[in-house]
Amino acid sequence: MDATVHLASTRPGQRPPAHRPHARRWYLAALFADAVGNGLWTPLALIFFTRAQHIPLDVTGAALTAGGLIGLLTGPLAGTLVDRWGALPLVQLSNVLRGAVFLVYPLITSVGQLIALAAVLAACERLFWTANTPALEQVVGKDGLLPVLATQNMLRTAGWMTGAGLAAVLSAALLQHPGRLHLIAWLNGATFLAAALLMLGVRVPRRTGAPAASRPAPKATGPAWRRTLADRPFLLLCLTQLAFALMTDSLTVMLPLVALDVLHGPSWLPAAALITSSVALLLAQKQAVRRFGGHGSALRPLRLACLVFAVAFLLLAPAGRLTPGWAVPVVLGAAVAGAVADALFAPVMTVLANAAAPEEYKGRYSATFQLAWGAAAVLAPAVGAFLLTAGNAVLWLTLVALGAATAALTALVPRRGEGDTPA
Question: What pLDDT sits at residue 415?
Answer without folding.
Answer: 52
